[in-house]
Design goal:
The complex is a heterotrimer.
Chain A: E1 9-12, H1 16-33, H2 35-38, H3 41-66, H4 75-91, H5 96-118, H6 123-142, E2 153-154, H7 163-190, H8 192-202, H9 204-209, H10 214-240, E3 242-243, H11 245-248, H12 252-264, H13 270-286, H14 291-307, H15 311-320, E4 330-333
Chain B: H1 2-29, H2 36-54, H3 59-80, H4 91-112, E1 128-131, E2 135-138, H5 139-161, H6 163-173, H7 175-181, H8 185-210, H9 218-232, H10 237-257, H11 262-276
Antiparallel strand pairs in B: 1-2
Helix pairs in contact in B: 1-5, 1-8, 1-9, 1-10, 2-3, 2-4, 2-8, 2-9, 3-8, 5-6, 5-8, 6-7, 6-8, 9-10, 9-11, 10-11
Chain C: E1 6-15, E2 18-28, E3 33-37, H1 44-52, E4 62-64, E5 67-68, H2 74-80, E6 82-85, H3 97-104, H4 115-121, H5 123-127, H6 138-150, E7 156-160, H7 168-175, H8 178-182, E8 187-192, H9 195-201, E9 204-209, E10 212-218, H10 224-232
Parallel strand pairs in C: 3-8, 3-9, 6-7, 7-8
Antiparallel strand pairs in C: 1-2, 1-4, 4-5, 9-10
Helix pairs in contact in C: 3-6
The chains are: A mainly alpha, B mainly alpha, C alpha/beta.
């Protein structure tokens, strides 16, 4: 028992609810990892697809919500990661599963010269500029006959492997990527760099005057987001086995990411998670309605943006104080003895 | 080569009409309308629908009738939807206009199916005017160019010489002080968008006359409009026109070299201009 | 004694969560020139902004010509006859000098002030009327800002830090125009950091200190000592 009086102010990071959630999360991952032994292969394929949506959305969220950069062109890195993975697999003889992180890395690296162009713009025009760049990627790959030009090509490197093995491995790879992506973003945002990022988002000039290297941090976030997008893309096409420029570089990827994040809430970690789940549910039950489904999504995004400025999850956070991934530090006044 | 440049200039006229509305909305209220292209296509389909009701002979009448409807639509859209998205954060306006883009594309798909349609002009789109022996200029593209020039001059005049234009500039400079003077910024913004939508409707009608349109054409038109504005430099309508011309010429040169690379070439030139001269070629920077 | 033209009672104002004004009581009689002085951050500008609707105020806390006007939009307040020359001039860069002046007339109120009278008062502006507003010197810009507010023919003119960033000789030039303005019966409130100038031109002074009125009285009656104590918030030593 010390003689020092208790501090009047304490910094609290994790709520009791989040500690439980962490335990539940670990349990879920373990259960999920066992799925190939008792589940149907269609479930695994669906999971891989959702995982790709989720990772892509989470990275878009990082870029927009924390980096303050709204991009309509992240699909450039998604497709690039996919194509690099395929080229390494088909032409360099690499195991495609090894090529997935390499594809992600390639996407992260190409983000550097791309940023040199994209960062000339800001705000709404930055968004459209990144879309132009994505179109350049698409048109470029569509004109390379070695990868099938406009109609695309198949991932031949996995031909020899048994279907069951391939599907299980893809599934585990997806699971690992999801966990890694969540961990990466979570740890990043809790770190000092994460706080610096928030400072930049809130007021760039003030942050600069505090000594935060704004330009370097923006590039860092852009690179990380590109890496994540490339990871999602490489993973997607390992699962899909077939790639084409229109599928790889479609702006719909960003559109879906926007829906997931806007509905779940921008700038919050749980947002993309909640958004991905809602999106998956909507997709499952309504995508048969084709155009009406998409129309509904569009209207939903508009309504949520206009009336629920923090997204539906953000609304819940404000209203009822829910928080699964605490990145805020709550300032508490300790109760006097 | 001369023919390529001339075709590029004519194409530039069309791109000017795509871009003027965007330039106007961004200039007055820093709003990026990612549904710009889709609204243009919507305008084209509105004329198509009107013509199917009123009859083929009424094409120009329908096109003119769409204009006041576009004005009212733009006014209401800004007043009741887009005004709520304005502010320091670009995300809300981007998401809402992006959502509108999706809604429009799918609505048009439902109503008209994915088949390309055109506005019948009784052969106007194939008529030509001979220029010397070798070159023939399309009548419709010449009309488009003329309309583009008139529209640019009209916008420039509106901004520089009218009270409305003055309030556009004031509200764009300093909304708070403009309101202190007695301006209702919400109404001023709504007028700006209303005018932008008239331009959009004109662009849509002409696009539908000159070529076929289908519901998913929008996004590409947006990119062209955007590139024209950036190449030309922000803050100036004549700059937008110049940017549109350069884009048109660049694309035509690209098409000449290889049909598959035309649009790509235009994108590349845009990116080069962005790297070398990010403020555009003819910017009118404001304090 | 007639009712005050402009009055506040217990006016509180906030910027987000931070409170800037803690209950200001203020009154202004027709034809007066009243000065509001105080250090940076004392709340002077916030006070003027609450009067003109740029900062939210409770409905009854501000009364103009007997009507509660707190919280009304700025356009409405200017239409009723209360105009402000904002701190830092804030001319419209995209507008010429003359266009800036014309903007002031948006409210369309009748009165003695128009372009000709302004050009007579500030001839240099007539010379530069077509130049962009912000290409003028600081003092000339202040004239434009002042003229812009006058163009709305207000009954009460609020001037926020006319002397800000200007050389003393220029400040004197600006204030030399005051008699022409008040001569028509205009009621004026000036916010000033320059205490000497404030004492010279005004009939009454309010001193603000950390969001409260720390001193109020006739300019002639208050001593330098009283003012500097109220300005800096040092407790008055009682003899």
């Amino acid at each position: 028992m010390t003689n020092m009086p208790p501090p009047l102010i304490a910094v609290e990071r994790a709520t009791a609810a989040s500690r439980i959630a962490l335990a539940v999360g670990i349990a879920l991952v373990l259960i999920a990892a066992s799925l190939p032994f008792w589940g149907e292969s269609s479930w695994m394929r669906e999971f891989v697809e959702i995982a790709c949506y989720f990772i892509f959305a989470m990275m878009w969220n990082l870029l927009a919500g924390y980096g303050g950069m709204v991009s309509i062109g992240q699909q450039a890195f998604f497709g690039f990661g996919g194509y690099v993975m395929l080229m390494l697999g088909n032409f360099a003889g690499l195991n495609p599963f090894v090529a997935v992180p390499l594809g992600a890395l390639a996407a992260g690296l190409i983000a550097v010269p791309v940023s040199f162009v994209a960062f000339r713009l800001s705000g709404g025009y930055f968004a459209i500029g990144t879309w132009v760049i994505a179109e350049v990627f698409r048109l470029s790959f569509a004109n390379v006959s070695a990868v099938g030009g406009g109609s695309g090509t198949t991932l031949t490197a996995l031909r020899g492997i048994e279907k069951v093995t391939r599907e299980s491995t893809t599934y585990w790879m997806a699971l690992a990527c999801v966990v890694a992506a969540i961990a990466l973003v979570y740890l990043f945002l809790r770190s000092k760099r994460g706080l610096a990022l928030l400072a930049i988002r809130d007021n760039e000039v003030a942050a600069e005057s505090q000594g935060i290297p704004v330009a370097r941090m923006k590039l860092a976030v852009y690179g990380v987001a590109a890496f994540g997008a490339g990871l999602a893309g490489a993973l997607y096409f390992v699962g899909n086995l077939r790639i084409s420029p229109d599928a790889a570089f479609s702006v719909n990827w960003t559109a879906f990411a926007i829906f997931m994040v806007v509905i779940g809430g921008i700038g919050r970690i749980e947002g993309p998670l909640v958004g991905a789940l809602i999106f998956w549910a909507l997709n499952k039950f309504l995508s048969d309605y084709g155009t009406w489904y998409l129309l509904g999504l569009g209207l939903l995004a508009i309504v949520v943006t206009l009336f629920f400025k923090q997204g539906l999850w953000g609304y819940a956070q404000q209203r009822w104080g829910w928080s699964l991934f605490p990145t805020q530090r709550k300032l508490l006044r300790a109760r006097p003895e | 080569m001369l023919e390529t440049v001339i075709q590029g200039v004519l194409l530039g006229g069309l791109y000017t009409l795509f871009a003027l509305g965007q330039s106007l909305m961004f200039g007055v209220m820093r709003l990026t309308n990612t549904a710009q292209g889709d609204f243009i296509i919507l305008g084209a389909f509105a004329v198509i629908a009107g013509v199917s009701v009123a009859g083929d002979g009424m094409v120009w009448g329908v096109a003119l009738a769409v204009l006041p409807a576009a004005f009212a639509f733009g006014y209401a859209l800004q007043r009741y939807v887009l005004n709520g998205t304005l502010g320091k954060d670009p995300l809300p306006s981007l998401v809402v206009t992006f959502g509108l883009s999706i809604v429009i594309q799918n609505l048009l798909l439902e109503l008209f199916s994915a088949d390309p349609r055109a506005i019948e002009t009784g052969g106007l789109n194939t008529q030509g005017v001979a220029l010397g022996d070798a070159i023939s200029l399309g009548v419709l593209p010449l009309i488009v160019l003329a309309v583009a020039l008139v529209a640019t001059a009209a916008l420039q005049w509106l901004f520089a010489r009218t009270a409305l234009g003055r309030s556009f500039r004031a509200v764009s400079d300093d909304r708070e002080i403009a309101e202190l003077m007695g301006l209702d910024a919400k109404k001023v913004y709504a007028f700006a968008t209303a005018i932008a939508f008239v331009l959009i409707a004109i662009a849509g009608a002409l696009q539908g006359m000159r070529t076929t349109v289908s519901p998913s054409d929008g996004p590409l038109l947006l990119l062209f409009a955007f590139e024209a504005v950036i190449i030309g430099g922000m803050g100036s309508f004549w700059g937008t026109l110049a940017g549109a011309m350069i884009l048109g010429i660049t694309q035509q040169i690209g098409f000449r070299l290889d049909p598959g690379w035309g649009i790509w070439f235009g994108h590349i030139v845009f990116l080069i201009v962005l790297v070398l001269r990010p403020q555009g070629l003819f910017p009118k920077t404001r304090g | 004694m007639s009712a005050p033209l402009l009055a506040t009672q217990g006016l509180k104002a906030f910027y987000g969560d931070a409170q800037a004004l803690f209950g200001i009581d203020f009154s202004l009689a027709p034809g007066e020139l009243v000065a509001v002085i105080g250090a940076n951050g004392a709340g002077k500008s916030t006070f003027l902004k609450s009067l003109t609707g740029l900062v939210r105020a409770p409905r009854d806390a501000v009364r103009f010509k007997g009507e509660p006007v707190g919280g009304l939009p700025p356009g409405e307040i200017v239409r009723r006859g209360l105009a402000m020359v904002p701190e830092g001039r804030r001319l419209f860069p995209s507008l010429s000098v003359e266009e800036n002046l014309r903007m002031g007339a948006t409210a369309n109120r009748k009165g003695p002030w128009n372009l000709q009278r302004l050009y007579a008062l500030f001839p240099i502006l007539a010379e530069k009327r077509r130049q962009p507003g912000t290409s003028l010197s600081g003092g000339q810009q202040q004239m434009v800002a002042l003229g812009r507010a006058l163009m709305s023919n207000p009954e009460v003119l609020l001037c926020d830090e006319l002397s800000l960033g200007l050389a003393p000789i220029v400040v004197r030039e600006i204030y030399a125009a005051m008699p022409a303005i008040t001569g028509e019966g205009m009621t004026v409130v000036i916010v000033e950091q320059d205490v000497t100038m404030a004492r010279q031109v005004s009939q009454r002074i309010y001193c603000f200190q950390e969001g409260r009125v720390s001193l109020e009285g006739k300019s002639g009656d208050l001593t330098r000592e009283q003012i500097s104590q109220a300005y800096f918030g040092i407790e008055a030593a009682h003899a």
